[in-house]
Amino acid sequence: xxxLIADDEPNIVTALEFLLQRGGYEVRVxxxxxxxxxxxxxxxxxxVLLDVMMPLRSGYEVCQHLRERPELQHIxxxxxxxxxxxxxxxxxxxxxxxxxxxxxxSTSDLMGKIRGLxxxx
Amino acid sequence: MLTxxxxxxxxxxxxxxxxxxxYYADKRADAGRSVIxxxxxxxxxxxxxxxxxxxxxxxxxxxxxGVGFLPIYIGPTLMIALWWIVMRKVLRISKQNRIxxxxxxxxxxxxxxAAIAGLVTVIAVIGILPYISLQLKAISSSFSxxxxxxxxxxxxHMGAGSVFNDTAFWVALILAAFTIAFGTxxxxxxxxxxxxxxxxxxxxxxxxxxxxxxxxxxxxxxFNGFGDIFxxxxxxxxxxxxxxxxxxxxxxYASWVWLTVLSMLAIMFLPRQxxxxxxxxxxxxxxxxxxxxxxxxxxxxxxxxxxxxxxxxLRFPGGGVDADTFVLTLPMAEKxxxxxLLVFIGGLSAATGMVIVETIALSTMVCNDLVMPVLLRLRRxxxxxxxxLTRLLLGxxxxxxVAILLLGYLYFKLAGEAYALVSIGLVSFAAVAQFAPxxxxxxxxxxxxxxxxxxGLIAGFAVWFYTLLLPAIARxxxxxxxLLEHGLFGIELLRPLALFGLAGLDQxxxxxxxxxxxxxxxxxxxxxxxxPSADEHRQASLFVDVFRRGGETGGARFWRxxxxxxxxxxxxxxxxxxxxxxxxxxxxxxARGLRWPLERxxxxxxxxxxxxxxxxxxxxxxxxxxxxxxKEEALSLEEVRAILDEASQVVEYSHRLQQKSRELETATAExxxxxxxxxxLDRMKDDFVSTVTHELRTPLTSIRAFTQILLEHPDVEPxxxxxxxxxxxxxxxxxTRLINQVLDLSKIESGRAExxxxxxxxxxxxxxxxxxxxxxxxxxNIRVQFSAPQSVPPVSGDVDRLIQVLLNxxxxxxxxxxxxxGRIDVALYEExxxxxxxxxxNGAGVDEADREVIFDKFRQAxxxxxxxxxxxxxxxxxxxxxxxxxxxxxxxETRAEGGACFSFTLPFRRRxxxxxx
Lengths: 121, 917
Prior knowledge:
Helix content of chain B: 55-70%
CATH architecture of chain A: 3-Layer(aba) Sandwich
Strand content of chain B: 5-15%
Shape of chain B: rod-shaped
Strand order of the largest sheet of chain A: 2-1-3-4-5
Distance between the termini of chain A: 11 Å
CATH superfamily of the largest domain in chain B: Sodium/glucose cotransporter
CATH class of the largest domain in chain B: Mainly Alpha
Helix content of chain A: 40-55%
Largest sheet of chain A: 5 strands, parallel
CATH architecture of the largest domain in chain B: Up-down Bundle
Oligomer: heterodimer
Number of helices of chain B: 35
Number of strands of chain B: 9
CATH topology of chain A: Rossmann fold
Number of domains of chain B: 5
Distance between the termini of chain B: 117 Å
Strand content of chain A: 15-25%
């Protein structure tokens, strides 16, 4: 299973990368929104860990673009962000994310959710 | 030619003409195009003051008293000068309160009292009877004289013989019929009789013309002008004496004064004068013209009085011809038939005009203010549930007209014989003068109470009756003459002609003196005994303060209660007729923009209905009727006072409020601007908080993630473990730095930071900072150069803070200078009254667009670049604050050769600057 990490914070990317690799997933990394979109296009991951606050293109936009493409509908999206307000949450979900997780997150929790989403297919 | 039938026919023709004029005027009024809406017609209508008394009696008086006939005309002329104050107020009050008669006015003032209304009516009727009989006497006498042409003989004992042989009786009946036709064809809510007004304006002209005609004839026809007459008169000693004013009037000064006063009051309080001046007035502005037109009329009609009088005395020296008849007998003696007929018609005109107006006015009062209140109280008649009362009302008025005229005739029979015309008339003047205290007091003094008015009126009337009416009746033989000589019950002090021993005055003066004392004394005395009731206070205020309050809703403000529209509608319909009621309600709705049919009955509607009703049945009865269909909550005197005080306070404060409101506007504008700024700040604060939260959470995420990883995965390679732990540590430091800076910035911005100012050597500070970063410079292989003069003047400032600034600038330079060949140049020098420090790097420089942005919180150059910038984004804002606190400036420039140059200044003389948010 392939997972794309889209986040501009290098340290967080490191942590996520470690966790995913330990979990047996293939990992790709994007550091901004544009990169994220093009990597989704080319790599067709099964799941995207999407940070909202990214340069060049925000996570919301990426998600929306994603959902506009029928062939990309099956890709699962988990939004990660430090913004925790309700308004942001509903915005994220209405943009088409499957899950919305606030930072800081629990690693076991996150991995559990990833496994769950990918299992349901 | 002057035979009986001719005279009668001419008379009827003239009356027919008057009627036609009245009819036409009424029709025009109904069509809305009134003929009498002119100040000239108004002024002429006021001339109804000149009756047969003026026409015949003035000459008669002049013949005995010479110039002494004048006070009766001086009075009105003087009064009219005062009209601007008094009459205008009466007019305004009457319009606002929809007054329909003199009795209505007085009763309305004193709490809408039915008792006062009735009393005033009784006094008025009794008081005017002599006056009416005078007119009857004049008409019948002049007829009797004229019909005997060419013989000139005085009529025989008038009033003797049977009633049906008496010309006067028939005259009375004819006049009654005529008046009924004039004034009681329908009910008008405002008691306007436009036709009547037109007719009497016309007859004022006729009588003036007739008098002028005979005057001209006598002066220039019989004699040779004014000079001729007076010359010849002065030859006769008796006549000569009459030409001097004071001696010619019996009683001298006192008489003149009282006669003038009497006539001043008469011009206001005779019911017919009140009717034409106040009730029939269509426009307050007409008053200003009348003020000089009426005296002009008076002058015109009096110009020839003396000439005619002297002419008559010279022509009929024997005294066999009654001076009252000179106007008629002089043309007769000179065989001027047409002129004599014209004179007769003139006299008829004068008398008829008076009778019509007076009787209509009196009958209105009798109906509204005397009969109706009594009938309404007689529950047996159950009048308040009868559907249509208009016929009843008209019937009462007609009956009253006939009754009054017959009573006038009765007085004529009983007492008219004994006196000359003028004396009879003065008796009536004295009667209506009794209204003066209560009216004048009523419109200028709020303290007059109902009881005071009642007592004043009763006292004055009683004295009048005793001193004037009784003697007249006694002298005609209907009461024992002993009454006059020995007083009531034989008590000398109560002699009618010399009360309490005051002898030597002529009868009128004597009567006026005592009646006024009694009247005013009782009025004032009783009024002061008790304070006015709530009703009286309200009415008093409405009357006395009429110029101060605007609008016509005076009564409505003081009313509280509940009412229903259908009930009010029915009530109005019963008295005015269904059509008039409907129209009244529609007008009301239209004037206020309400829907028809009306839904709610509020205080204004009730007041309106009451006012309309008052036009038909008088204010007192209207009050009773309205009260029967609404449930009123009585206002206590305190509440009325409170409302009045409130109203006056409101007026007082209103212009102060206007002032305040202008001030408020400017204040509001300022507040709005401040509010905007605050909202702006609030938003910025929200942004700040959310950004800070975000910034704090990011390192926390790493810390938590790596901590968890290390906990859950003990099998991590040591190298990786070390790396992870390193990240944790770094992120912790980052977090700490961020927190510190946020707190720092917050403290500085809110002014809570502590500053430890000392005199410092800036060169030293810079050197220390450079030394502190020495290791970093080495690690990055950055060349650093510091140029400064030998010594610099000391500056006042906070050392630690300045080091903070320098470290910030230097670390920025380190971050952004060229990666491989980094170079930083620091320069310190004096400039413009302070010191300046430049920190230059050879990096990419700062874009023009970013030059101010980088000083914003959390904004860093390179936000949109792919490289995630290092640092918190708060360093520069804090540095700027610090520099500005010291009174300096911090900015950035791009060097020509590339790279950024951050500069700041520190002035020697510091002005403490408040830190801008």
